[in-house]
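ok so I'm stuck.
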Amino acid sequence: MIDDPDKTDRLVDALEASLPVETRLSASLIQTLSKRSPDVAIPARCNVVSVFYAGEEGGIVCALDIGGPDTKSAHLVSITHLIFERKLPLFSQIDAYSAPSHQEAQTAGAPQRPMAA
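replied:
not stuck anymore, here's the structure
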């Protein structure tokens, strides 16, 4: 088991209570999302507007507010691919969740830790 169910549930609950949460997107994530949604301008900053747990294989998934209410496709991203400000009260919990051992098991080739701004 990769995820500690209690810690993961507490983090998801804390994130839900804090929504929306500002995040930044890496250049590689912007590029990936731009390829998937060529008709939508992908910003460097956006908000996490929803979170859910997709199980051991999917981890914590964040819905981003890219494209506004008329967007044709949801932008769902693993929390491990987002950049959060260190001053965010939940940063240490997000950072611990995204520790290298967790992330390596979950996503091959992804950044080792969430980047801090």
